[in-house]
Design a protein that fits this description.
It comes from marine sediment metagenome. The chain is α/β, with parallel strands linked by helices and about 450 residues long. The protein is built from 15 helices and 14 strands. The termini are far apart. The protein binds nicotinamide-adenine-dinucleotide (NAD).
């Protein structure tokens, strides 16, 4: 029996430990609050000092606003502490790593932030501490963290436990959330698994499937998102075919979905965005490349995904030329999916880049857009012309000088207004990337649906 990690397990059972969550973003912050409200001593660490200040003042993101009351109360009572630095503790420390993992390039490795966070944790570590990686990581990253642990003179699985439990959260999914999504986990040893189970009891009722190796868990995470990307790209290519055939892709999908086995419906759009689906499959490509292999399905899926905004712009341009209208477009929906504020790697901004390159007059609208985050959006989306025009709303006045409304994301809060714009013919052309609007013969606006 390993007495060091056994002592940690006993301490975790009595909550006599400190949980340090590194990275207080979409993944780390709700986790931190959940553990805090379940009676753990927690410390949230983020190297963005503005974010720390924002949290301390209770200024939360829209997606976090339901936590505001409890966050303010816990900060006030001292139960919730957030800082830019980790801290030592005499109690066992459990470090949960939720930092970003960027697409690897020549100058940046995907584990750059994970390494920084693990290093910061290890610099204050002692025997009995445990690290749980939650970030989506490339194959081999957990093994690199094991080397980091050993380079500090500790034995992984004896002095320090190491787990990888990839986050699977799907923002705004009505059915599946932090509390009920089952998780896959790799643990260096049985006691670390018991420790993790005890902690995840308060997260997802310990619904954890332990896999045999870190590499299995790493491939599982990337493969899940590769599966989604491939299917999204497949249906987007089908939408392009249906456009040419003059049939509606949704009629095809609804009919195909009656097959009770071997078919899963995915729906077309201007391309998958965000910090997960277009990124994680690249980790598998990297693994394949390192082994001298190709992963052609993924390469094709990524290239179709990149092409989608261009396809949307080609279609809009042809329509405007055909109808002899001005090259003026409003892009509605800048987040990467409906009803969220996250604008990372957004198809709406890709459409913006393409339209401005082609000399269109473009305006942008998203009810989740925050002026104070403009610079962040520019960096995250590689925006070529940062002097974008943002409309304050979709009122008749705001849209009157444009000839096309391109709906990239159907936010629920815009449902009625978008219907009204179409029904009352407020703009000559509506291009609906998600196909939520229904054809209305009484409208004088032209409605074009991607794949319809
Ligand atoms: N957002 C999602 O829906 C989602 C879902 C599943 C998995 N993931 C994965 O989870 C990880 C985190 O994603 P996210 O969306 O929460 O990212 P995020 O950008 O919202 O938050 C990450 C935070 O980490 C901070 N940070 C960076 N380096 C740090 C360091 N060394 N120490 C402390 N803080 C540091 C950043 O300042 C940022 O606030 C990524 O690997 C992502 O792929 C995200």
């Amino acid at each position: 029996m390993n007495l060091i990690l056994k002592k940690t397990l006993d301490d975790v059972l009595s909550k006599n430990c400190v949980i340090q969550v590194f990275g207080l973003g979409y993944v780390g912050f709700p986790l931190l609050v959940k553990l805090c409200t379940n009676g753990f001593h927690v410390l949230g660490i983020d190297n963005d000092s503005k974010k720390i200040e924002r949290i301390q003042n209770g200024e939360l993101l829209e997606s976090e606003s339901h936590l505001k009351e409890i966050v303010l109360k816990s900060i006030h009572s001292g139960d919730l502490v957030v800082d830019t630095q980790s801290a030592k503790s005499e109690k066992p420390r459990i470090g949960i790593i939720c930092v970003p993992t960027p697409i690897p390039t020549k100058s940046i490795q995907s584990d750059i932030f994970v390494k920084d966070a693990v290093k910061a944790f290890l610099e204050m570590a002692k025997k009995g501490d445990v690290i749980i990686l939650e970030s989506s990581i490339e194959v081999g990253t957990t093994s690199k963290m094991k080397s980091m642990i050993e380079s500090m003179g500790y034995k992984e699985g004896e002095d320090i436990g190491l787990c990888f439990c990839p986050e699977r959260i799907d923002p705004k999914n009505e059915k599946w959330n932090l509390e009920n999504i089952p998780r896959v986990i790799y643990c260096s040893d049985d006691l670390s698994f018991k420790i993790a189970k005890e902690i995840y009891q308060y997260i997802n009722n310990s619904n954890l499937l332990r896999v045999k190796s870190a590499e299995i868990a790493e491939v599982v995470k990337s493969f899940e998102n590769a599966f989604r990307l491939v299917n999204i790209s497949l249906v987007n290519e089908l939408a392009i075919l249906c456009d040419k055939l003059g049939i509606n892709v949704r009629d095809v999908l609804d009919a195909a979905a009656t097959k009770p086995f071997g078919f899963l419906p995915f729906y077309p759009g201007a391309g998958a965005g965000g910090h997960c689906i277009p990124k994680d499959p690249r980790f598998l490509l990297e693994s394949a490349k390192k082994l001298g292999l190709e992963f052609k399905t993924l390469e094709n899926a990524l290239s179709i995904n990149i092409q989608m905004p261009k396809y949307v712009v080609d279609s809009i341009e042809s329509l405007l030329i055909e109808k002899k209208l001005k090259k003026s477009v409003i892009i509605c929906g800048l987040s990467y999916k409906p009803d969220i504020e996250d604008m990372r790697d957004s198809p709406g901004f890709k459409i913006y880049n393409e339209l401005t390159e082609r000399g269109f007059q473009v305006a942008l609208y998203d009810p989740f857009f925050k002026n104070e985050l403009s610079q962040k959006y520019v960096i995250e989306n590689n925006i070529k012309d940062p002097d974008f025009k943002i409309l304050p709303n979709l009122s008749d006045d705001s849209i009157s000088s444009y000839d096309c409304l391109c709906i990239v994301q159907h936010h629920s809060k815009l449902k009625d207004r978008l219907k009204e714009i179409y029904k009352n013919s407020k703009i000559p052309i509506i291009y609906d990337c998600q196909g939520n609007l229904r054809f209305d013969p009484s409208s004088n606006s032209t409605l074009k649906i991607l794949g319809g």
